[in-house]
From TrEMBL:
Regions annotated as coiled coil: none
Co-factor remark: Binds 1 [4Fe-4S] cluster.
GO terms, molecular function: 4 iron, 4 sulfur cluster binding; 8-oxo-7,8-dihydroguanine DNA N-glycosylase activity; adenine/guanine mispair binding; metal ion binding; oxidized purine DNA binding; purine-specific mismatch base pair DNA N-glycosylase activity
Database matches in SMART domains: ENDO3c
BP GO annotations: base-excision repair; mismatch repair
A Pfam family this chain is assigned to: NUDIX_4
Name used for this protein in its record: Adenine DNA glycosylase
Ranges for domain HhH-GPD: 35-186
Signal peptide (residue range): none
Amino acid sequence: MTTTKVLTSWYSINKRDFPWRNTINPYKIWLSEIILQQTQIKQGLPYYEAFTAKYPTVFDLANADESDVLKLWQGLGYYSRARNLHATAKHVVDTLNGQFPNNYKELLALNGIGDYTASAIASICFNEKTAVLDGNVYRFLSRYYGIDTPINTTIGFKVFKALAQDILSKKNPAEHNQAIMDFGSRQCTPTNPDCTVCPFNKSCVAFKDHLVDQLPVKIKAKKPIKKYFNFLVFVSDSRETIIEKREEKGIWKNLYQFPLIETEKDPNLKEFHSQLKDYTIIKDLNYELSLYNDVDIVHKLSHQHLHTKFWIINLRKLPISGIPIKKIRDFAVPVLIENFIEDFNF
C-alpha cells in the first residue's frame, strides 16, 4: 500500500470536523491558515469564527480599519500576521478584484504568504499538485524515512520539500496534504507518539532504529536576549490614564501600550524613582509611585525575553492628554498589557 493510501485511509477514520474543512473558498482557507500559524487549533478556532462572523468576505476585511483587525486579533500574538492579513485583503480587493490567485506561484507573491500557506491554498482550493511542508509534515517525513538533515536550514527545506512533493498524491493532493498534516499532529506527535498503533510502524526507520526521540533534527536557536521593560501606569484623580501607539517597526507595531522606559538592568523602587527624575512628562510633578508586581513578569518571545515591571503613578492631573480608564479595553494591546489590565482592574 502506498504512503498516500495509508495516510488517506487513516484520515478517513480520524479526520476532525473543522469549519475550514467544509469549504474550498480561498478566502476562508487563507484566513484559517494565517490564524493557525504558530497557533494550536483549540486556540485558533474561536478567532477563525470571530473573523468570519465579523468579516465574512475578503471585501469586508479589506474595508475594515487596521485598529479593528488588531483588536479582534488580540491574544493570538505575532501581530505581524494580522497586519499582513489586512494588507493582503486590501491588495486582493483593490488590485485583483477580490479574486485570490488560483496557483502556488502567484499566491506566494502575496504579503504574509509563504511556501506552506501558498501550497495549502493552491492544493485545497484549486487542486494544484503542490505539497505542504509544516512542522507536522517535517516530523513524519524525518522519522519515517530516517532523515537527520536539520529541518530549520535551507538545505533541510529543499530535501524535505522534494520528498513531500515526490510522495504527493497526483489524483487528490488536497486530501493527501490534509491527511499528512493531521497524521503528524495527532499520531506522529512531537513527544511520546504511540508507535505501537501507527500504521507505518513496520516500515518506519525511526521506529525500527529507536530514533523516534531524536528526529527530526533542529539546530538550536540563539539564546534569547534579556530586556527590561518598565511600563508607567498613570492613574489620575479624574480616572484617566495615558497610552501610546507603537509606531516603530516590530512585533507590536500599531498596538497600544502604557508609556515605556527600557532600562539596562532590573531596577528597584529607589533606583527607578531616581531615573524618573529625568523623564520629561512627569518632571517636577507631584506623584505617588508604587510597584505593582514585585516579581518580574517575564514575557517570552522567540528572540527575546521581556522582564517586565508595571509602575503605578497616582497623581492629581495627567501631564499630557490621556483617555478615560473605562475606555482602555477599546484599544488593541499586546497580550502582556492585556493581562495586566485584566489583573489590575483599575
